[in-house]
Design a protein that fits this description.
The protein is an all-alpha fold. It has 11 helices and no strands. It has a domain at 81-270: Orthogonal Bundle (MetI-like fold). It is a multi-pass membrane protein.
């Protein structure tokens, strides 16, 4: 009889090393580089799409040179300080008033009947249309500019707060009432925390619209400010400087909105912990 050889197990293959997925910052950096590359190619080849032309658009290198000159300019600090002051003041007033109005309108039917119709009429009016009236209402140009940024931030905050209040779980309110919570305590301990995520979203959107309205605000009589710098560059036909001003406004708007979102997540641990 032939000897039966023992079965041998097939040799194990060493598992292939999986490459770790690219980090979030890496993907974001690649996205920005791709946008810069497309911009450079469109300008280099003078891309013309019929309704869109890059023949006279400044190239990234020209914008970078203009940004370097602005960074060395002694006026940069004054531009930033003026814009931050106007946006901060307008947004701060809009946040206080917008959250208060949103809580009232979202919770009290009488307040909704009396306050919501005027707000809905005023909401579609663009910021530039408020310039003549703001000049008549405020004795100083600084007050007019703060008012324009205030108008831009107010309506997103009000509407998001109303949405948050109206979508607080009714069972949560009923349970709080069953435990004896009434009046002001119901607002501060149940309704406001329940509406907090929508309020933070409205604040972040309102901050973005503040910066969106900055150029309009500083068109009035500004002598300093990033919006004024952008508008002045247009009148002087300094096209690379226009792009620099736009990018600075975009970066400041993105950073301030992200800061509000982060603070909201930090103050609301019941929404999944700190981020």
């Amino acid at each position: 009889m032939s000897a039966v050889l023992p079965a041998t197990a097939p040799p194990r293959r060493s598992p292939a090393r999986r490459r770790p997925p690219p980090s979030r910052l890496t993907l974001q950096g690649l996205s920005l580089l791709a946008c810069l590359l497309l911009w450079q190619l469109a300008c280099a080849y003078r891309l013309h799409l019929g309704f869109l032309s890059f023949a006279n658009t400044p190239r990234p290198a020209e914008v970078l040179q203009a940004a370097w000159l602005l960074a060395q300019s002694p006026k940069l600090g004054a531009h930033l300080a003026s814009s931050l002051l106007r946006v901060g003041a307008g947004f701060g007033i809009a946040a206080l008033l917008g959250v208060a109005l949103g809580l009232l309108i979202g919770r009290l039917p009488l307040a909704k009947l009396l306050l919501l119709p005027p707000l809905e009429v005023l909401r579609p009016i663009p910021a530039v249309a408020w310039i003549p009236l703001s000049i008549l209402m405020f004795p100083s140009s600084e007050g007019s500019m703060i008012f324009i940024t205030f108008v831009g931030a107010l309506f997103p905050i009000v509407l998001s707060t109303i949405h948050g209040v109206q979508h607080v779980d009714a069972r949560l309110i009923a349970s709080a009432r069953g435990l004896g919570t009434r009046g002001w305590r119901l607002f501060t301990e149940v309704i406001a925390p329940g509406a907090a995520p929508s309020i933070v979203t409205g604040l972040a959107i309102g901050m973005g619209t503040c910066w969106f309205c900055l150029v309009t605000a500083e068109m009035i009589a500004g002598q300093y400010g990033i919006g004024y710098y952008t508008w002045e560059s247009y009148t002087l036909q300094a096209y690379p400087n226009i792009v620099v001003g736009m990018l600075v406004i975009g970066a400041l708007g993105m950073g301030s909105s992200a800061l509000i979102t982060w603070l909201g997540a930090w103050l609301m641990p019941w929404q999944g912990g700190r981020r």
